[in-house]
Design brief:
By secondary structure, the chain is of the alpha+beta class. It is built from 6 helices and 3 strands, in the order αβααβααβα.
Amino acid sequence: MNRLGRRFTDESLGDDFSNQATLRQPGARAVLICDHAVRTRCAAAAPYPHGQVVDRIVAPEAAGGRFVRAATLNRLLDTVAGWGVVRRGLVETLEGWAAAAAGADGHLDAPRGVPPEFGPRAALAVLGVRAWEAGVDG
């Protein structure tokens, strides 16, 4: 999700697409929100081209990146909103996601190639390369 709390890409397309799409977002920043099942299946599963498996959530967390694991949705929302992401946008986006995951014909900000799952319990702030090179922190 971008700083407005909106999905802007189909995450199921993979890191390469999401990373490039992040560069076109306000401030070249995004927040990755997922549950434990998605993190286990996707974030730590596929090897990078060099053959190593790099956990895409644990590695940034270990490097001091903004990260939260939350037992409740409100705690997750409070923390991510504290990072400068519009809380109302987050709530609307996650409600739309939950409806789509339950099979409703709801609206997702960005199309999804595979059916959505629901259960957000972790969030990671993502800083686009352009902002990183410009010396923007946090």
